Amino acid sequence: MNYFKMQLPALDCNEKFARSALAAFCVEAAPTLEEIGDVKTAVSEAVTNVVVHAYDKENPGEIFLEAYLDANEIKIVIKDNGVGIADVEKALEPFYSTKSDDERSGMGFTVMQTFMDKVSVVSKEGEGTTVELVKRFGDKQ
Ligand SMILES: Nc1ncnc2c1ncn2[C@@H]1O[C@H](COP(=O)(O)OP(=O)(O)O)[C@@H](O)[C@H]1O
Ligand SMILES: [Mg+2]
Predict the structure, then answer these.
(1) Does the CB atom of residue 49 touch ligand 1 within 6 A?
(2) Ligand that lies nearest to the alpha carbon of residue 107, given by its number in the listed order
(3) Which of 15, 75, 94, 135 allows an S-S link to 68, with CB 3.0 to 4.6 Å?
């Protein structure tokens, strides 16, 4: 078992850093390029959600990122202390978004579910959100 934990401000630029850090951490488990791409895509969506939805722009809070690698399985935890999600079930639906600008398609959670083996979301309004992503490498073929 290997793990890392980090804490970083919820800034746009840290989305790239977070997904690169996760990709580098996965290498030990010898994932395929496709699997690394899947992890990066899912982490990118989860971290972007913290940056975009959890905190107000003037007063960005923090992203808490943890990853646990056990044999061929990685578990990634992305947590914030932001506004939280009132209705998680609804938020998980494809095309559901509380932001209407062009960039937000409401497909972030759907993308995470597509590229990871397990996605769980726990959230409380006014307290924050925790997203857990699990992927097993070498499952196919
Ligand atoms: N970390 C978060 N904090 C608060 N709200 C969130 C968070 N992540 C997701 N949400 C809510 O869930 C909705 C759906 O997220 P998502 O599927 O990524 O779509 P999008 O980001 O395009 O709106 C968001 O519109 C937002 O209301
Ligand atoms: Mg999103």
Answers:
(1) yes
(2) 1
(3) 75
110 close to 121: Cβ distance less than 8 angstroms: no
Closest CA to 129 of 57, 92, 81: 81
Ordered by start, the domain boundaries in the chain are 2-136
Residue with tokens 């699997």: 35
Active-site residue, from 72, 81, 104, 136: 104
Cβ–Cβ contacts within 10 Å for residue 20, how many?
13
| C-alpha of residue 141 to centroid of ligand 2, in Å | 31
Domain 2-136, CATH 3.90.480.20 — does that match?
A: no
Whether 47 is in the pocket of ligand 1, judged by its Cβ within 6 Å, is no
Count of CB atoms situated within 10 Å of the CB of 103: 8
DSSP class of 60: -
- Which mutation among 52, 53, 107 tests ligand 1's pocket best, with the greatest number of atoms within 8 A of CB? 53
- For the chain, 141 residues long, the average pLDDT of each consecutive 10-residue run is 97 97 96 98 98 92 98 97 98 93 85 98 98 92 54
- The neighbour count for residue 48, using CB atoms within 10 Å, is 18
Q: 46 near 63, Cβ under 8 Å?
A: no
